[in-house]
From TrEMBL:
Pfam families: CarbopepD_reg_2 (PF13715). Residues 1-17 form the signal peptide. It comes from the Bacteria. This is Carboxypeptidase-like regulatory domain-containing protein. InterPro entries: CarboxyPept-like_regulatory (IPR008969). Keywords: Signal.
Length: 341
């Protein structure tokens, strides 16, 4: 089963402030002009002015790190930018290090590697047909025949144009792996796929109808699922929850409460707790139906997590989706600050 998209997320609990101010400088404390400042995975972004200053205004708290980037410098991450009223950020220049060059026998062509990369990265939905990666040549591949794994990396952010959802996406690919059960590059032989990165969205829509298309993609997504949990809004027109093949009410297993500006979710599943070598662990699996047809499953390896008001959860590495809900990938990805109106 292919794992659902995993982002570089850091959740925290703190008092909410609507305005974030900051200054970005280089290693010599000189201001950096036109540095990118954005909340990971959102449309919330700005550029620094000639003095290195920036201001971000938010209508509600979003629980994703603040990212600062500038050409030639290491990216800077702030897990909780709401703690300080004025941020002082110093970027460090990138070390001039070349990636290790790996020599491999060419079992598969670059064309075949690119094909499976797009299938697992963009997905195979209606939206993926309208997605293009403008700088494909910046993607490098390495097939490890010992582990039967295709690795991909890029030294520059990927520029993705999504004409279906009318977004321009900049995705900094940190890690990408596809594992196969035999020496193969075929989709039918994939056992697992994983990718990690940071992203920022730019809205390029020109037509009012795009809102309906985006809403259609939102409903039935993971964001919608977590939003439905905190809103206690499971019904026959949205999600139905099943445990051991029996439909169960949401509040039988999921208990929500407010903690500062976040929604705390606790899973009450006594059978999910077990011990391995004296260490207590948790595993609870559910099946989902969306509108009585689209079937998915979700595995929780934590019994407590937090969800912000947009439906973004705090434990992507411990919550795994399969089935229909996981098919969308990058092509069906909406900004983390998106909500239907």
């Amino acid at each position: 089963m292919c794992r659902y998209l995993l982002f570089l997320l850091f959740f925290s609990i703190s008092a909410f402030s609507q305005t974030i101010l900051g200054k970005v400088t280089d290693e010599n404390n000189e201001p950096l002009y036109n540095a990118n400042v954005y909340f990971e995975g959102t449309t919330i972004h700005t550029l620094t002015d000639s003095s290195g200053n920036f201001t971000l205004n938010l209508s509600k708290k979003i629980n994703t790190p603040l990212v600062i980037t500038f050409m030639g410098y290491d990216a800077y991450f702030i897990s909780d930018p709401f703690q300080n009223t004025k941020l002082q950020i110093k970027l460090n220049p990138k070390l001039n290090q070349l990636r290790e060059i790996k020599i491999e026998s060419q079992y598969f062509s670059r064309e075949d590697k690119m094909k499976i990369f797009k299938q697992q990265f963009l997905g195979e939905t209606q939206a993926s047909k309208y997605c293009t990666i403008e700088n494909e040549d910046d993607i490098n591949f390495y097939y490890d025949v010992k582990s039967l794994t295709l690795n991909a990396y890029a030294d520059k952010p990927l520029k993705i144009i999504n004409k279906y959802l009318e977004y321009e996406l900049e995705f900094d690919l940190i890690e990408f792996k596809i594992k196969f059960f035999k020496r193969s590059i075929k989709k039918s032989d994939v056992t697992d796929s994983f990718y990690l990165g940071t992203s920022v969205f730019k809205d390029i829509s020109k037509f009012e109808k795009i809102k309906k298309i985006r809403d259609h993609v939102y409903y039935g997504s993971t964001k919608h699922f977590f939003k439905a949990i905190i809103d206690n809004d499971f019904n026959e027109k949205s999600f139905q929850l099943f445990k051991n093949r029996f439909q169960v009410p949401l509040n039988m297993y999921f208990i929500t409460s407010k903690e500062d500006d976040l929604n705390k979710v606790e899973i009450r599943d006594k059978e999910g707790m077990f011990r391995v070598e004296g260490v207590e662990k948790f595993y609870s699996q559910f099946s989902l139906l969306f509108k009585k047809s689209n079937q998915s499953n979700v595995v929780f390896r934590t019994n407590t997590f937090y969800v912000d008001d947009y439906g973004n959860n705090s434990e992507n590495d411990k919550i795994e989706f399969g089935g229909k809900i996981s098919e969308g990938r990058i092509a069906n990805m909406l900004p983390m600050d998106y909500l239907p109106k």
